[in-house]
Amino acid sequence: MSEKKNVIGDLKADIAEKYNAKVTFFRSIGMKIAMLVVGASIIATLISILIFTDLTKKESSKFVQNNIGDLATAYGKEVDLDLTEKGTLTYDDYHDILADVQVKGMSTSYAYLVSSDGMMQYHKSQEKVGSAVENEVVKGLVAELQAGKTPADAVVTYLYKGKMKIAGYSILSDKSILVVTADEDDAYSFMGEITQKSILLIVAIVVLFTLAGYIFAKFLTKPMGVVKDLINETADFNFESKNRMSRMVSRNDEIGSIAKSLYVMRENLKNVVIDILTFP
């Protein structure tokens, strides 16, 4: 009997030395689950931010273009009223009406007036008055007017001296062209703030989901740790953990299914050990 126990003891020692190695958290299933949760949250957040940013930019572009177009039309009517009353207007007359024309929040926006022959009739920089217009879009409008056509009020975008511009124009009663313009970059200046807030949001979500993923992973893998301990005890021919075994067997998930199989194995192995120890 003593010799049999010694053989079993040696067998247990050999098995423990070879296979009873601990798994670090960074190589565990829990870590993989946590990383999966964090990765999925980052991807979902990035996609949401990209979609939100794109929609915001499009809606902002529509808002700015509508605003610029409305300003051009409204101030065009105001200039027309003064033309009807006075017949002709001086630079100061135009300045009184157009000097403060600006899209709210866009410092690069301003208004200027071009005559039907393409000469600058009013500009916030007075030295430009009397010079030929340089804007290709406005040149095209002048060409249409000289051809006897009257273009409808509209909003356009164009490249001018390396910068994209947004411009709304209105054709006045004397065939002059009132233009309200702004740098396109100015329309999207708020995007920098959105980007900064998006980065902070991503960092916050990563921290939050890392914590949540860790807690979830520990919650999910804790029963697996109990099953592992029971398997190690079984490997050591220790069959005394009845309470923990019964708790695991009572579960209705995959862990419970594994525990039931382990229970059957433990009972069979226990009977085998008893048979060996009691065999004459």
Give a description of the structure.
With 280 residues, this protein is of the alpha+beta class. 63% of the residues lie in helices and 11% in strands. It has 8 helices and 5 strands; from the N terminus they run H-H-H-E-E-H-E-E-E-H-H-H-H. It has a 5-stranded antiparallel β-sheet. The longest helix is centred in the N-terminal third of the chain and has 58 residues. The chain is rod-shaped, with a radius of gyration of 40 Å.
Describe the secondary structure blueprint for this structure:
Layout lengths: L1 H18 L9 H58 L4 H8 L11 E5 L5 E3 L13 H11 L7 E7 L2 E9 L5 E7 H4 L3 H45 L6 H8 L4 H25 L2
Antiparallel strand pairs: 1-2, 1-5, 3-4, 4-5
Give keywords.
5-stranded antiparallel β-sheet, 280 residues, 63% helix, rod-shaped, alpha+beta, 11% strand
The low-confidence runs, each spanning 5 or more residues with pLDDT under 50, are none
Structural class: alpha+beta
Q: How many helix segments?
A: 8
Strand content: 5-15%
- Average of per-residue pLDDT values: 81
Radius of gyration: 40 Å
Strand order of the largest sheet: 2-1-5-4-3
Largest sheet, strands/sense/barrel? 5 strands, antiparallel
In short:
It contains eight helices and five strands; from the N terminus they run αααββαβββαααα.
